[in-house]
DNA sequence: CCTTGTAAGCGTACGACGTAAACTAGTGTG
DNA sequence: CACACTAGTTTACGTCGTACGCTTACAAGG
């Protein structure tokens, strides 16, 4: 996971992993069926790092806490975005996580249909945000943003994309703009919407 | 793109593509700098298939139309999810798309900050939903779901994940439950939230 | 007509990658 | 002492992206 954290899933190779462990690549196959199996295990480890919602506590606080935790964990393991939900063999932490989320919603007075709705919006948003942010071709630091944006737009005629340019100059390169803050806005907007729809208990 | 549509990005190889075109693999490098460049071009083609929002029209209708179109396009090109926003060299359709979305929001009376908020939530949700749905380890058909779910839970003690089991049996395997329908729910929830926050024009 | 420049495509080759198969030590247990 | 088990190694195969150098096809200019 350290290797993947640093350079992405692509830099995690069996040979490289073996070398990092002081062992030949093939030795790994004593402990792991194949690379996909290894990634299954890694994904489950990532799930185990996510804070579990507590059934019986305030659902809104718990759901918010979980979403923030997912985002924080995925920001430490950016390789995991895009691979978390695609496993054909979910591990125990994965299943426990889903079980806890559903349990917390049901305990919070949701019926099954509303729980499914809530889970779907929250998860889609949280993973989607993580994905778009992780993949953003610039990191923190407005100098970086400005430079990257200029390089992207260079091949095209000036004034071809006026709104986009306005957005970048007026907003995205503002030094006290942090894209990460956007997450809170959308998260609360969605929680508000869910709270409004939830049948009163 | 036909190749990737069928078997995912992994089955698109330079040799395979050459063969499909009746040409040696290396011939492709006359037209494309490298594989990443090829994928850049493919991503831009995907963007070009997305319906553009019209500036001046009702922003809510346009945003909804766009989100639905994104989802539809991504469902035809499932390989593109996870790669759309990560390109270091966005093409003209990509930039035009972003420009149109921002333009439509600004024309709809949003200030730049609210436009950024709206764009962020909508995009994160739309991509996130596409990602989780595309990657779901089961396709359509409840028989499939039931079978897959049982196989996933088999290695674990019964009653280890009661809420998850309840969700699957009560809800997910219901024959008239289509996960795709969840998209509409979340989309309208988010649009409602945005409409509420938008400063009145 | 011939030359020459350019675009298109081909052939070969290299160094990754995941992993199958067979083998070799070291470690207990009967 | 024999035996099975475990962890690790060696070698090898097929596939990938792609660097490098070669060969055509063809159009423009003298």
Oligomer: homodimer
Question: By CATH's scheme, which homologous superfamily of chain A applies?
Answer: Tetracycline Repressor, domain 2
Question: Which CATH-level-2 architecture of chain A?
Answer: Orthogonal Bundle
Number of strands of chain A: 0
β content of chain A, as a range? Answer: under 5%
Q: Quickly count the helices of chain A.
A: 9
Sheet having the most strands of chain A = none
Instruction: Indicate the radius of gyration of chain A in whole angstroms.
Output: 21 Å
Largest interface: A-B, 58 and 58 residues
Structural class by secondary-structure content of chain A: mainly alpha
**Average predicted local confidence, pLDDT of chain A:** 91
Could you say how many structural domains of chain A there are in total?
1
Q: Give the N-to-C terminal Cα separation of chain A.
A: 43 Å
Indicate the low-confidence ranges of chain A by residue numbers.
none
CATH fold title of chain A: Tetracycline Repressor, domain 2
Order of helices and strands of chain A: HHHHHHHHH
Shape of chain A: flat
Q: How much helical structure, as a percent, in the residues of chain A? A: 55-70%
The top level CATH class name of chain A: Mainly Alpha
């Amino acid at each position: 996971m350290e290797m993947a954290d640093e350079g992405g899933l692509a830099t995690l190779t069996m040979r490289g992993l073996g070398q990092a462990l002081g062992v030949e690549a093939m030795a790994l196959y004593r402990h792991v069926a194949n690379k996909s199996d290894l990634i299954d295990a890694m994904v489950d480890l990532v799930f185990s790092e996510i804070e579990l919602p507590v059934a019986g506590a305030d659902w809104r606080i718990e759901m918010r806490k979980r979403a923030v935790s997912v985002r924080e964990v995925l920001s430490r393991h950016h390789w995991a975005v895009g691979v978390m939900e695609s496993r054909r063999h979910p591990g125990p932490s994965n299943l426990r996580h889903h079980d806890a989320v559903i349990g917390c919603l049901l305990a919070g007075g949701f019926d099954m249909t509303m729980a499914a709705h809530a889970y779907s919006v929250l998860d889609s948003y949280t993973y989607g945000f993580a994905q778009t942010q992780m993949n953003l071709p610039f990191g923190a630091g407005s100098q970086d943003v400005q430079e990257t944006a200029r390089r992207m737009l260079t091949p095209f005629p000036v004034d071809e994309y006026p709104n986009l340019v306005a957005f970048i100059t007026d907003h995205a390169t503002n030094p006290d703009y942090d894209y990460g803050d956007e997450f809170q806005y959308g998260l609360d907007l969605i929680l508000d919407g869910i709270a409004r729809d939830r049948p009163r208990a």
